[in-house]
């Protein structure tokens, strides 16, 4: 074990920071390579559990209090981590959160349990490594807080040579974040043109490090907004409501000689492994990592093969252990794994106790423990093999699948399906949405998803087409899932709205859509339900499903009374915007079905306002004001607008 780093004491007048390290990635894509109830933070990178790298670099900072937060299901697997690392920090606790499925759930839990005593560093992902001690970034955060208590968050980025990363807009003089990339496309800005006149740097050369310095108000934002799942939800909320909330977010970019990476999928895990081997994060290196795990990297044992610039140092060990194997580049190989003659391995993470035959070719692969691969097998391009698998000699691996030894528990992992091999004792797992295990959705939207320029251009064209029709792929998927859920609930004798709300929220999380898009598409799906082409049936179902609409479009008096005055104002403003989205869904259907649906629009809007009490007058008038003057819908809505304005005049006269 390496000796502990001597930590600089924090000045007495400065409140110590707490590190909130989220130990889960909350992505079922990692299920194939994890043992039952095992945390993703124990996944080995360079044969060291990835959480040990995160804690090793935290040890180099001034932070002495650690909250390692996970779902309750995986918390037990982290007890050894807590035991091993307690001596190195002033406090170290593993916090299990019952039912947690996102970073937001974890933050809500620790906020409700009052575990945060002050400002904190949020590390959204255990596979986050940096060479920085964050001295400058911590100082900047504290300085901004001292200048203005409303400076609630600082995001940490690293400079990147690839100028096609996520895009942000930063105020040149202050470092204040003004523009943030779209939720469904990290290369697309959500832009207010006014910002272009205020010394804003549009940066496309920054890599999100997964680090954010936060005040407790960030945790409060999660608690006040149950649908917030990721840090980015809070970022977009603050930026979109700056005039109301008066809160600020800033950006710090690491020095050019400091590296950082937050791995979120298999592809970036491989990149992280290679960067660790090549010592980009020095002094955080595999041979110096503090770890008592049996997978620890030993510098005198050839369990790792590196890029060409470090190959020469390890060739002698490589030849001793695998005398007739081909060169193995950019790969890490677990202890007691054996490799046959003339086998080529490239860009792989291979577990312990594996037996790989002769004359094999294995490229771009993540392979679990105790896997047996027979002679002559070729495995290329996004290969994912679970633990304890015996690879068939002659069966071709279906595309976009993971090879596992057992069937998936579809009750626990609802996003994955599996089918057994007809001839061999293996199961092929795949995602229900037909996408790849290898990369997550955000990375598929970025340039990191492909090395081929033509592919990127095709993707851009597809996105452009989607936006030109007002809907993108993730929003379309959300709409389809909501419609499916509504149709299923509608067919039931007992139609429980709470169950439907939970399903819709789950779809919103999975599809990563904004609150505005959710509000618009929930009502759009409702309008096309069977029977709703008849006005009487439509109005009847509106009343029956009123709890659903109150959840998304209007808060009750009791709910508002329970909130602080400032939060009450924010809640009313949020629901007003959602009501406008509801009316835009009505307008969308009118545009598609003018003849059939047009006469129903005024009656439906009046009913939602007067009978169902779901719409407010302000939302109706604001929406009606946006309808084109030459649109027939303007004339259809004019009587209601006149009636509402007349009511206002009567109220003014009474006063």
Automatic annotation (TrEMBL):
Describe the location of the W2 domain by residue ranges: 472-654
- Alphabetical list of InterPro entries matching this protein: ARM-type_fold (IPR016024), eIF2B_epsilon (IPR051956), Nucleotide-diphossugar_trans (IPR029044), Trimer_LpxA-like_sf (IPR011004), W2_domain (IPR003307), W2_eIF2B_epsilon (IPR044123)
Classification via Pfam families: W2
Q: Which GO terms describe its molecular function?
A: guanyl-nucleotide exchange factor activity; translation initiation factor activity; translation initiation factor binding
Q: Which GO terms describe its cellular component?
A: eukaryotic translation initiation factor 2B complex
* Matches recorded under PROSITE patterns: W2 (PS51363)
What segment(s) does the record annotate as region Disordered? 445-468
**Composition bias, kind Acidic residues: at what positions?**
450-465
User: Which CDD domains does the entry link to?
Assistant: W2_eIF2B_epsilon (cd11558)
Family matches, as SUPFAM superfamilies: ARM repeat (SSF48371), Nucleotide-diphospho-sugar transferases (SSF53448), Trimeric LpxA-like enzymes (SSF51161)
Q: Which domain of life is it from?
A: Eukaryota
Which PANTHER family does the record match to this protein?
A: TRANSLATION INITIATION FACTOR EIF-2B SUBUNIT EPSILON
This protein's name = Translation initiation factor eIF2B subunit epsilon
- The organism is Caenorhabditis auriculariae
């Amino acid at each position: 074990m390496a000796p502990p780093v001597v930590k600089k004491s924090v000045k007495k007048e400065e409140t110590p920071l707490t590190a909130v390290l989220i130990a889960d990635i909350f992505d079922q894509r990692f299920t194939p390579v994890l043992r039952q109830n095992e945390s993703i933070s124990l996944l080995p990178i360079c044969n060291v559990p990835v959480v040990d790298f995160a804690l090793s670099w935290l040890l180099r900072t001034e932070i002495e209090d650690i909250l390692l937060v996970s779902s309750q299901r995986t918390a037990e697997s982290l007890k050894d981590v807590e035991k091993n690392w307690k001596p190195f920090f002033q406090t170290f606790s593993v916090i299990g959160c019952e039912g947690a499925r996102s970073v937001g759930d974890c933050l809500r839990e620790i906020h409700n349990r009052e575990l945060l005593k002050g400002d904190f560093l949020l590390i959204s992902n255990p596979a986050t490594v940096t060479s920085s001690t964050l001295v400058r970034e911590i100082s900047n955060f504290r300085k901004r807080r001292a200048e203005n208590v409303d400076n609630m968050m600082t995001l940490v980025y690293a400079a990147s040579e690839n100028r096609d990363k996520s895009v942000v807009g930063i105020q040149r003089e202050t470092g204040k974040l003004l523009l943030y990339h779209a939720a469904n496309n990290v290369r697309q800005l959500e832009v207010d043109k006014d910002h272009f006149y205020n010394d804003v740097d549009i940066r496309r050369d920054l890599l999100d490090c997964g680090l954010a310095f936060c005040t407790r108000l960030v945790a409060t934002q999660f608690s006040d907004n149950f649908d917030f799942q990721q840090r980015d939800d809070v970022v977009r909320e603050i930026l979109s409501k700056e005039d109301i909330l008066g809160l600020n977010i800033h950006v710090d970019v690491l020095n050019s000689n400091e590296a950082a990476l937050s791995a979120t999928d298999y592809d970036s895990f491989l990149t992280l492994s290679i960067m660790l081997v090549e010592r980009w994060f020095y002094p955080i290196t595999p041979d110096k990592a503090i770890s008592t795990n049996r997978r620890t990297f030993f510098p005198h044992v050839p369990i790792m093969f590196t890029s060409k610039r470090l190959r020469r140092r390890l060739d002698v060990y490589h030849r001793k252990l695998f005398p007739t194997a081909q060169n193995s580049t950019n790969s890490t190989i677990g202890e007691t794994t054996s490799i046959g003659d003339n086998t080529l391995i490239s860009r792989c993470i291979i577990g312990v106790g594996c037996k790989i035959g002769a004359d094999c070719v294995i490229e771009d692969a993540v392979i679990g423990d105790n896997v047996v691969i027979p002679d002559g097998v070729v495995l290329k391009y996004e290969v994912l093999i679970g633990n304890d698998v015996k690879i068939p000699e002659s069966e071709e691996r279906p595309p976009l699948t993971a090879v596992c030894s057992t069937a998936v528990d579809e009750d626990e992992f609802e996003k994955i399906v599996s089918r057994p091999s007809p001839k061999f004792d293996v199961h092929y797992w795949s995602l229900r949405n037909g996408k790849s295990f290898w990369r997550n959705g955000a990375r598929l939207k970025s340039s990191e998803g492909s090395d081929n320029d033509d592919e990127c251009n095709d993707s851009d064209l597809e996105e452009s087409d989607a936006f030109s029709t007002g809907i993108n792929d993730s929003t379309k998927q959300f709409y389809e899932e909501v419609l499916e859920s509504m149709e299923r609930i509608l067919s039931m004798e007992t139609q429980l709205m709470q169950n439907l709300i939970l399903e819709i929220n789950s779809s919103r999380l999975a599809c990563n859509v904004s609150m505005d898009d959710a509000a618009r598409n929930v009502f759009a799906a409702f309008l096309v339900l069977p029977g709703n082409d008849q006005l009487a049936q439509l109005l009847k179902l509106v009343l029956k499903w009123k709890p659903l609409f109150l959840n998304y479009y209007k808060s009750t008096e009791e709910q508002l009374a329970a909130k602080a005055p400032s939060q009450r104002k924010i809640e009313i403003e949020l629901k007003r915007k959602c009501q406008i989205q509801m009316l835009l869904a009505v307008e969308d259907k009118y545009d598609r079905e003018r003849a059939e649906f047009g006469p129903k629009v005024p009656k439906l809007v009046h009913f939602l306002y007067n009978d169902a009490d779901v719409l407010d007058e302000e939302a109706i008038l604001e929406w009606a004001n946006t309808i084109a003057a030459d649109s027939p819908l303007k004339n259809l809505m004019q009587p209601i607008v006149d009636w509402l304005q007349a009511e206002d005049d009567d109220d003014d006269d009474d006063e």
